[in-house]
Amino acid sequence: xxxxxxxxxxxxxxxxxxxxxxxxxxxxxxxxxxxxxxxxxxxxxxxxxxxxxxxxxxxxxxxxxxxxxxxxxxxxxxxxxxxxxxxxxxxxxxxxxxxxxxxxxxxxxxxxxxxxxxxxxxxxxxxxxxxxxxxxxxxxxxxxxxxxxxxxxxxxxxxxxxxxxxxxxxxxxxxxxxxxxxxxxxxxxxxxxxxxxxxxxxxxxxxxxxxxxxxxxxxxxxxxxxxxxxxxxxxxxxxxxxxxxxxxxxxxxxxxxxxxxxxxx
Length: 265
Known about the structure:
Shape: globular
Number of strands: 14
Largest sheet: 14 strands, antiparallel
Radius of gyration: 18 Å
């Protein structure tokens, strides 16, 4: 059993900075597909989906998923993962499950929060069905946490909610069943970027940060992102560091009512 604590080093700063109206940018059914490239080699896709938004008294429950798939035939990467998160209205994680293909089965990890006792239970095991939330638990770890945290998917929505904050935010993050920290620098830089999916420069807000952890496919270190400069605040492009080196993530397809990448003027 691993039992340790984030402490409250960043807690006061975090809660002062969080955007209380995070729910406004979300649309149920929103589906975004990105292509991942390393140098000039296209290595796979990332697809995000907002599954459900429900109201609970004064809060909201937000359910979202991401599907990560490398392209077949690549000798240096074979990765297939599904993440599902449930978040509150400020895009903090309330529950999380990940499934990553391992041979003929899927290795699953689920986070169960015990807020009253400041604990997080990390359950791990195998399943034959990537679409099932049930699996045979082989291991349970207990982590002490004293504040709300992010998982690998809720962190993306948290960034969308707060991209216009104009300040640095330090976010406790649970990645691969371990505690880490994400530093997000929201400096309100209005600029443009280009993607192959449209024939015009896209109007975006730029930010950067540091992943002080090792995530999926060795994700760590500095990163940079460009989100649409509109009410949807949709990720348009990102640059990140993984095992292979620097990768580019670019929006190639989207399904959201009455939305397209805004044109930069």
